[in-house]
Structure formats: structure tokens, C-alpha cells
Specification:
2 copies of one chain form a homodimer. Chain A has 8 helices and 12 strands. The first copy, chain A, is of the alpha/beta class and about 350 residues long.
Chain lengths: ~350, ~350
């Protein structure tokens, strides 16, 4: 077994300067979708072009490098405001506070936070600061990454990954429908609690301005349980056909959620940046077949690159245990740059 | 200058077998978007779940490997039927005939064809066969690729690339609005005639089941004018920042279309498969700034991976000279797996 020669590769990016990647990309996003979103470069936030009125505000954010997350999900039926940090770095508490203020229309704000130390800290501080602005906030923590589940061993807990799409979609629909702050937050926590994700990569991503991927693999292995910030996973598994790779992701998620015959799920087959549509559609087919064989109903399925890690070549599978209420909120109209129906 | 070591890389894919890539991906697409589309594996076509009535049918197709094109654009406001070939290979005339029959609701069918010898031949034969079914057809040829413009020198003419998205969107809207067969075809030809595209790649794509990219580049050059089937371009240019790379694409297109101050365009910044969202948004910003500096109005802009070449790392810029009629048809509602507004 030898290290793939790819590891000495020079990776290149279509960027100007690494320092300007995030701000220039957000300018570009607004230039494409100016009817939906507005980029406030001073506050460092992305808002709806036309702010919503008289509803619970929904704000999310985190490091960049995961596009279209989160700015691509700002719009009717999903987020009111996204707060982007630098690549793989938390936004500041002041940015989150500005985003929380912008998201508020008098009924409080739900903050959807992926479970990373910096994000959690800065959203908490921002929530405290928001009380000075007389804004009531609730945090919904997303911690779906099964690879980082330490059980009762303590530690920072599971990381937040692609389940954030399900949480943002369903919470956004619930807020749009006029629910109260506590009800929206409770629903978001329920979605997070019943969602788990498992991921794998064939090739690591490369940070803007750098020339080598974050880690190396041999040509007959894949990295199982990778994070979305270049973190290595929980181990290597043999490279295999798509159906077998997908099974390595689906099985532990089904076991952890205790999914049984007759239950329904919402499935997200998420590309990590370097997977292309043919690959993701083939993985989606595999997810459906694996669940179908167990008598689990795939009520809704989304396949695409939604929570990426720059150009990492790999994918994740997220399952959310779904009842009629969640499916109905999932189906509610949404109109954002990256998700519209 | 030395060849990048990347060239000896083993590229891997999330697939089962190369022979089943297209059919399994189409099954997966239907499993995700079964409310919009239906994959007929016998006929080898992708149709709307609910066929439209009493309108001109719109069918397109061509080799696979360019996803989401074309199956991702089947649905209300765009295509009635997509006819996918194998990877980089034309669909058969019998497939196209089946697609044409399925697209017809009594008012004839417009066939949108990218200019490649095999596609043109098989769509022409299918059009002749369709007369046996008493279906009137018109071909709209898309030939936007400036890199293959041989002027008056003859030959097969310019290839069809990302302008097919503009043609399919606008033709689809026009057909949906109830226009006649000749009017829909004439409009499609006008869009094609006023659209040009230029592309570049930092890294070639790799065919499913193969292990090496289609061609090699040194680390300080890009391939200018690449095709979408692994074809090399018209030459190499120095690797540079995103703004400079984008200018290499925008300048020749502006010159060819004779765009002048005060004119409006629809711009498509198209990822070729391996470009990730941050890169495409930065390129979109550059397109907007370059055109703005010339007094050309970007009426609408789309940035994303729509006409790909497997995992090729690169992008193209398509400009379509736009008047109020085209912009209004562009804005008309569309509801497909890959494009919805």
C-alpha cells in the first residue's frame, strides 16, 4: 500500500487573495440573488432583501468554506440572517449580535448553532448581548455527527454537520407559520435530536491559498467520519463501490436512531464539495435501496452539495426521523439562493 | 516549468460500475425528485411526472457527464423530456424519437440540440421518424462555444455548451405561455444566436472508471477554451487570480457579441464540475465588475454548476444579449430538479 501520488499535488483555486475569499464570494452571491438577499459588509451579515415582519427571527452562522451553507439559505421559509465567519472560523460575537438584531421583528430570535466550541461561545455571548437590545433568544444546537459521539464520556459532544439543513428548513417553515419563540425552538431541538449524520471522504479539501489537501489517504482506503473542517475521521475503511460505501454510512445512522420497519425519514445525501452530481445521485439511489430493504420509508430525499468542506471529495448521509408534522414543514415553500421549492 | 505531479494521480469515483453510472444516477434523480420527473428506463428518457397538455413540447438531450444537464431541467417551465446518452456519447435516434413522442401534446415539438455531430445526426433522424407519428418538429441548434469558432473556414461549427441553459429556460417559458411551434423555435434560435461562451480549466475531468484526467497541465498554466468532453482548448494561458482569469473569458465574448454601453445581458457563470461555490461566486463578482466597467448591464446572473464535465475544475462565462422579452421569459416560473424559481 503506497501513498497516492496525488498527495504531492499542487491544488489551485479560482480566487483572488485568500483574505478576500469570503467577502468577495458574498458580494458575488448578492449580485446573483439580489432579489432575495442583501450582504451587509460592515456588519458582516447576510439578510433577506425584504425583512420579514411579525414572526420569530431565525439566524444561523459559522465559519465559511461550507457553501452554500449558511448564506445560501437566507430567504422566505428558511433563515432571516446568516452570519459568516472566515474560512473554518467562527463569526465574532459582535457579528452574531448584529445578525440577531437584524433578524428580530419583535417576537424573539432562534439561533441555530452547529456544535463547535467557538460558534457556541460566540452565539451565547451574542444572546446575552441581545438582552441589552431587549431581544429574547433561544439557541438550537445541531450535533448530528455520529463520528464524534463519545457516549457518556463527556467532551465537546458531537459536531454539527449536514443536519443543519433539515433544522434550518423545518425551523424556518415553523417560524414563517407564526409559531411562538418557545415552540419554534422546541421544534428545532426535536429535529436536531432525531437527526444523525455519517460521512466519508476519498480526498481531503484544500484551504484557499494552500497547495496541499488537509490530509493524505492511500489509494485503497477512504476516510470514515471526516469532519467538515479538514478534520480526519475515526478511521480508514477500504475503498469500494458506491453501494458499499453508502452502506458504511447508512448502517450506523439507522442503528443510532433505532429506526424500525414502518418508520419514515427525511434523507439528505450531501456532497462535501468535490463530489459531482452523478456520484451523489448514485449514492441517493443506494440510500433509498438500503432503507427500503429494511422497511424504512424515505419520505423525502435531497441529494446535492449543501454543507461542503471546500473541495473535499466525499459525501455524508443524514437521516431525520420524520412524522407528518415534520414532513409538512419540510414541504412548505422555501425561496433562497440554494434551496427553492 | 514541470508537469504537476497531480497528473500521476489516481482519481477515484463514487460509482458502482462505469456501465451503470447513467442509469443508476437517473434512478437516484427520480427517487429525489419523483414529484417532478419520471425516468423511463426502457425508453431511456426522463419525462415530467405530469405531462403538460396543449403546448409545444420541448425536448433536449445529449451525452451524460454534464449533470444536472439535461434531466435536471425537466419540469414546468423548461423541458418536457430529456434524452440522456451514455457518458459523453449521443443518445440514439430511437431514444430521441421516444422522447419526441413523449413530449408531444399535439402542437409539435422543439428539439434543443447542442452542436455535436452525433447529437445533430440523431436528432435529425428522430425528427424524420417523428413525421411517421404525425409530429411536427423543429431543431434549435445551440452553438455558443467561442473557442471553436472557425469563422468562414467551415467545419462542424462552434460546439454547444452552457448557453443551452439559457435556451432551455427561455424556450421552455415561451412554450409554457402557449406560443406556436414556429414562434418557439424562432425564439430559441434568437437566444442561441445572441449567446456566446468561453471556458477555462485548471484541471481536466476524469472519465468514470478511469484513473487519470483527460489531459495534463503544468502548475503555472490554465487551459483556455476547453470543451465539455475532455477536449483540450485553443491554448494555454498563465494561471492567475480569479479576476484576471475571468477577464480572459469575458473579453472575447463581449467582443464577439459586439456588446456596447447601455446593452443588457443575462450572464451564466458555469462551474465545470470541480469548481466549488466560493470560487463561482468570486467569478460572478468579477463578471459583474468587468461588464459594469464597460457600461453593460447585467440584467440577470446565475452562478453554479449547470453544464459540467464530470469533475473538471474550471468554469465558463456565457453572455446572452437580452431585451425585455427575454428577461421576462427568463424570470417566468420554473420548477425542475436543478433550477426552480
Amino acid at each position: 500500500m503506497h501513498v497516492v501520488e496525488m498527495r504531492s499535488v499542487m491544488k489551485r483555486q479560482i480566487i483572488n487573495s485568500p483574505d478576500e475569499v469570503v467577502s468577495q464570494a458574498l458580494e458575488g452571491l448578492e449580485l446573483c440573488h439580489g432579489n432575495m438577499i442583501r450582504y451587509d459588509s460592515i456588519g458582516g451579515i447576510v439578510c433577506r432583501r425584504t425583512p420579514a415582519r411579525d414572526k420569530v427571527g431565525v439566524v444561523s452562522g459559522g465559519g465559511a468554506g461550507h457553501e452554500p451553507l449558511h448564506a445560501g439559505f437566507v430567504g422566505h421559509g428558511m433563515l432571516d440572517v446568516a452570519v459568516p465567519g472566515a474560512v473554518f472560523a467562527s463569526p465574532t460575537a459582535l457579528q452574531v449580535r448584529a445578525g440577531t438584531v437584524a433578524a428580530d421583528s419583535g417576537r424573539g430570535v432562534v439561533q441555530i448553532v452547529k456544535n463547535y466550541t467557538g460558534d457556541v461561545l460566540n452565539f451565547r455571548i451574542a444572546g446575552e448581548l441581545a438582552t441589552d437590545d431587549a431581544i429574547d433568544t433561544r439557541i438550537v444546537l445541531v450535533d448530528d455527527d455520529l463520528a464524534t459521539d463519545a457516549g457518556d464520556a463527556g467532551g465537546p459532544g458531537r459536531r454539527g454537520t449536514a443536519a443543519v439543513v433539515a433544522v434550518e428548513k423545518i425551523v424556518g417553515a415553523c417560524a414563517e407559520a407564526g409559531a411562538s419563540l418557545d415552540d419554534v425552538a422546541a421544534l428545532g431541538r426535536r429535529v436536531a435530536a432525531t437527526s444523525r449524520t455519517m460521512s466519508l471522504a476519498l480526498e481531503a479539501g484544500t484551504h484557499p491559498g494552500q497547495r496541499r489537501p488537509a490530509f493524505q489517504l492511500t489509494e485503497d482506503e477512504v476516510e470514515l467520519g471526516v469532519g467538515i473542517h479538514g478534520e480526519r475521521g475515526i478511521g480508514r475503511a477500504p475503498f469500494d463501490e458506491a453501494d458499499a460505501l453508502t452502506e458504511m454510512l447508512v448502517n450506523p445512522v439507522v442503528a443510532e436512531l433505532n429506526l424500525a420497519r414502518g418508520q419514515s425519514v427525511i434523507a439528505i445525501v450531501n456532497g462535501l464539495g468535490g463530489a459531482y452530481p452523478l456520484e451523489l445521485s448514485i449514492a441517493a439511489r443506494a440510500v433509498h435501496r438500503l432503507l427500503d430493504a429494511r422497511g424504512i420509508r424515505v419520505a423525502r430525499m435531497l441529494a446535492g452539495s449543501y454543507v461542503t468542506s471546500l473541495d473535499m471529495h466525499g459525501f455524508s448521509v443524514t437521516l431525520t426521523t420524520a412524522d407528518d408534522e415534520l414532513i409538512s414543514l419540510w414541504d412548505a415553500p422555501v425561496r433562497t439562493p440554494a434551496l427553492t421549492w
